[in-house]
Specification:
Number of helices: 8
Distance between the termini: 211 Å
Number of strands: 43
Largest sheet: 5 strands, antiparallel
Strand content: 25-35%
Structural class: alpha+beta
Helix content: 10-25%
Length: 749
């Protein structure tokens, strides 16, 4: 023991250390094993935590979806209920004592509605009740709620009554309540919609930009339909025309351009073609198809004055009962269909000048429709028993109507203002057999052509002319001779004159009288007696009038100047059936046509057309077998006012006349044959030589030299005497032997 400590043996210490090392090693192994197990447990825990988080996320998503489904289910139930409610705006504001009466009126309006698109249908709606909200003063708030049993009834009621008038001051505006709830969900931020694909539209007035200011016309013959430029001076050898389009695309596809006839729109923008399925419209410089209107077995087509709307008719054919359809040209949408009555004559509908209204005369009423809604004006027709005709003024909102004599009530003519439906002028007539209405093209006058029975064998023809632009619409009365029927009547388009053909219809030898309404009195300008005439055609510019004898009158044509009251020319186109002025009034086309249905083969060899100047000079002609139709392409109204037109006419000779004369001179020379051209060149060279010699003679230096030579001034004309000498020369001499025939008359007895 050293220092109080017991000294341990060395061998024992080493054994202890060895034993300690073995135990530590065992402990380390166990610790290492536990560490490995712990790491595995930690890894398993992380995996478990990940799975737990994923499951929790899925659970949260499922809960969210479930909440959304619950909300959508609730919203769906709410929307289904809201779809059965119609909010009615435009309801009158009434006190409490009139609430029940107003509810009754609304119930009647919304129980049964009429849908007009795509066809006219009456629908019964299952209406439950009508609620009328009121304010503190018990006054209705100007709107109401209509509750229906099903959403379809609500939709039909809203569609059928939207925009319909309740009275003159109130018009319904209807919406489904569910739509209002939908609009409330519109986000605050606006997202620009995708840009729509812009389809290039053809330029419908392209032909008006022609540098030569030429007009176009279309012809139908055989299976061909062709559009030509009228150019009679530059293309003399080709019948005075240049082909613009002849249906080449359709021929390439194995089709015909039209299966029947064709028709231009009023301003020339469209060409309408007929097909078994309906009508097609063509336009632009290349005559591309720009519209299709389905109407089986269509036979008729008519345009509104401004080309906004189109009316088609199939004369009772097809499988559907409605035979008249009104269309919107731009959208190609059907506005309304109508059934055709037995008394309808085409065109069935007559349009107002601004395309806002269209009217139709039925048996005992005149129906005026607002366009494009095609609803009756003020929800009712104008009642007129046995009304025969109704037509709008070409420029003013007036309708002229007439009805015959009935039960001792005289026949009457009414002029009605639209939309007020006020009768502004009325006339009554007795013993009227027939009455025809003739509006002046500018709406300045209205002529009523009457045929009345004066006695059992005597018929009197007369005219009553209304001055539409004068105060109180005064009337001028003109009566023709007894038993001298009126064959034709025609207004001067741009003036105050009119012409009447009257006389014997059977012989065709009639008189033509020209009258003027200038001033305050009707005045006879000229009576042209004993003419082969049964039709009158005024130039679009006025002044020139063609007296035509069509059909059996052998195509006798007389060009007459109404200003100077003199005949310009008398020509003939054998068996002529058609006459039309071009829009400029410079040319006239006359034609011999046959019906496309056939049956008129007597004069088939004469089929074709001729082109004339405005004074009756022939320019070109073309013979065509199976010739059905020829039509000038109309021009839109002039955009110049009267003052601008006068200025153009005044400046025409000073600014433009020389240019036109030079162009005409070049055309004239180009159309000469070789011998005529040689003579023309010789004459021009001689004129140039004389002009140069005159300039040389009149040169001041030469004049002074001559005066110095003769010692006096050339301007002293008193020293000169003019002597005229007539020289006769025989150019040729012909001898002709005349043999007189001897005629012996033997008495019959």
């Amino acid at each position: 023991r050293l220092g109080g400590c017991e000294e341990r043996p060395q061998g024992l210490e080493s054994r202890e250390i060895h034993m300690m090392s073995a135990e530590e090693k065992e402990i380390d192994e166990k610790l290492s094993e536990l560490q490995t197990q712990l790491e595995a447990l930690v890894e398993d825990k992380e995996k478990f935590d990940k799975k737990s988080n994923a499951l929790k996320t899925q659970l949260d998503e499922a809960n969210g979806d479930l909440q959304k489904l619950d909300k959508e289910r609730d919203n769906l139930a709410v929307n289904e209920d809201l779809k059965k409610i119609v909010i009615i705006d435009g309801v009158p504001v009434v006190p409490e004592k009139k609430h029940e009466l107003l509810k009754k009126v609304l119930r009647n309006k919304f129980k049964k509605v009429q849908i007009t698109k795509p066809k006219k249908v009456n629908i019964v709606c299952k209406l439950k009740k009508v609620e009328l909200p009121a304010n503190e003063k018990k006054l209705s708030k100007g709107y109401a709620f209509a509750f229906f049993e099903e959403s379809k009834s609500a939709s039909d009621a809203a569609k059928g009554n939207n925009g319909k008038p309740l009275d003159k001051k109130h018009k319904f505006k209807t919406d489904i309540l569910a739509d209002i709830a939908k609009y409330k969900k519109v986000p605050d931020e606006w997202n620009a919609p995708p840009k729509p694909e812009i389809k290039e539209r053809p330029f419908f007035q392209s032909w008006l930009m022609d540098s030569k200011v030429r007009d176009q016309f279309v012809i139908r013959f055989g299976n061909e339909t062709q559009v030509y430029w009228n150019d009679p001076y530059e293309h003399v050898d080709s019948a005075g025309r240049v082909l613009c389009y002849g249906g080449e695309r359709e021929k390439k596809a194995g089709r015909f351009w039209t299966s029947s006839l064709v028709k231009w729109s009023p301003n020339g923008s469209y060409l309408a073609t007929f097909h078994l399925q309906g009508i097609c419209l063509w336009g632009g410089s290349e005559f591309r198809r720009v519209g299709r209107f389905e109407h089986s077995k269509v036979t008729e087509v008519d345009f509104s004055p401004n080309e906004k709307y189109l009316v088609t008719g199939n004369a009772g054919g097809g499988s559907r009962p409605e035979t008249i359809r009104v269309w919107d040209v731009d959208s190609q949408q059907l506005l309304r269909s109508f059934e055709c009555s037995g008394n309808d004559r085409w065109p069935v509908f007559k349009w107002s000048s601004d395309d806002k209204y269209v009217c139709r005369a039925l048996q005992d009423k005149i129906s005026v429709y607002e366009v494009p809604s095609m609803g009756l004006l003020d929800k009712k027709s104008i009642q007129q028993k046995s009304v025969q005709a109704a037509s709008f003024s070409p420029s003013s909102p007036y309708i002229a109507t007439w009805k015959p004599e009935s039960n001792s009530i005289p026949a009457s003519l009414h002029i009605i203002e639209i939309p007020s439906k006020k009768v502004v002028r009325e006339r009554h007539f007795y013993r009227v057999i027939d009455l025809k209405l003739h509006w002046h093209p500018q709406g300045n006058f209205l002529c009523a052509e009457l045929s009345r029975l004066k006695s059992k064998k005597t018929i009197v023809y007369s005219f009553e002319i209304f001055r539409m632009k004068s105060k109180n619409i005064p009337v001028e009365v003109m009566e023709m001779k007894e038993n001298e029927p009126v064959v034709d009547f025609a207004w001067e388009p741009n003036g105050d004159c009119f012409a009447v053909v009257h006389g014997d219809k059977k012989s065709g030898r009639n008189d033509v009288s020209i009258y003027t309404l200038k001033g305050t009195k009707l005045k006879l300008l000229k009576k042209i007696e004993d003419r082969m005439c049964n039709k009158l055609y005024w130039s679009p510019r006025g002044r020139t009038l063609i007296l035509a004898g069509l059909g059996q009158l052998n195509g006798h044509l007389e060009f007459f100047d109404a200003n100077t009251l003199t005949a310009l020319a008398t020509v003939e186109h054998f068996m002529c059936t058609y006459v039309e002025w071009d829009p400029s009034g410079r040319f006239v086309i006359t034609a011999v046509t046959q019906r496309i249905q056939g049956g008129e083969l007597r004069y088939a060899m004469d089929n074709g057309y001729k082109l004339w100047t405005s004074w009756g000079h022939p320019l070109a002609e073309s013979q065509q077998s199976s010739f059905y139709q020829i039509l000038w392409r109309p021009r839109p109204p002039c955009l110049l006012n009267e003052e601008q037109k006068k200025k153009v006419a005044k400046d025409l000779r000073s600014k433009w006349w020389r240019k036109f004369e030079e162009a005409d001179h070049k055309l004239k020379v180009a159309n000469l044959d070789e011998q005529q051209r040689l003579r023309h060149e010789t004459a021009e060279n001689w004129a140039k030589y004389r002009s140069s010699r005159r300039k040389e003679r009149d040169d001041p230096a030469n004049v002074k030299a001559r005066e110095d030579m003769i010692g006096e001034k050339e301007s002293d004309k008193e020293r000169y005497v003019v002597v005229e000498t007539l020289v006769e020369k025989v150019l040729s001499r012909e001898e002709e032997e005349v043999v007189e025939d001897t005629c012996i008359i033997i008495p019959s007895n």
